[in-house]
Specification:
Elements: H1 3-8, H2 19-50, H3 53-57, H4 63-84, H5 90-115, H6 123-136
Length: 139
């Protein structure tokens, strides 16, 4: 354990601080991130839906299924999490909800990739979620 760990009270294994400092940090992080999170959820939903033109250009035979994945599963879940973000209890489970959103969106793209031949433009859709999860939403 180095000097900084002892002074800050940080647990070197879990990388968490003492209960009081950890709670203060979580509150601060939520307050400083919630607006960005909400904007990101809407932006990612728009981008996810906007790429549906690929379904009709590249994957005509699967366009109905891909549209259902986009507009009946992924985007409604994004909107559900967006709506939940306005509740008072959202702070208790916001990181978990963002993680589930990340998984659902990525799985939607992975399913689409599974139906498409190699060298498909759908693999670039994973970049959208990788960037959204790490940069926009700060997961």
């Amino acid at each position: 354990m180095n000097k900084w760990d002892r002074e800050s009270g940080m647990n070197g294994f879990t990388l968490s601080f003492g209960e009081k400092l950890e709670s203060s940090f979580k509150d601060y992080y939520f307050d400083s991130s919630i607006v960005t999170t909400r904007i990101s959820l809407i932006l990612v939903g728009l981008l996810y839906g906007g790429f549906s033109f690929l379904d009709f250009m590249i994957a005509q035979e699967y366009s109905t299924m891909f549209t259902q994945i986009r507009f009946a599963v992924v985007i409604p879940f994004l909107l559900f999490v967006f709506a939940l973000s306005f509740t008072k209890k959202f702070i208790l489970y916001w990181q978990e909800m963002l993680f589930i959103t990340y998984i659902i969106g990525s799985l939607g793209i992975i399913i689409m990739i599974g139906f498409m031949p190699t060298d498909s433009a759908y693999s670039l859709g994973l970049m959208l979620f990788f960037l959204a999860g790490s940069v926009l939403v700060k997961l």
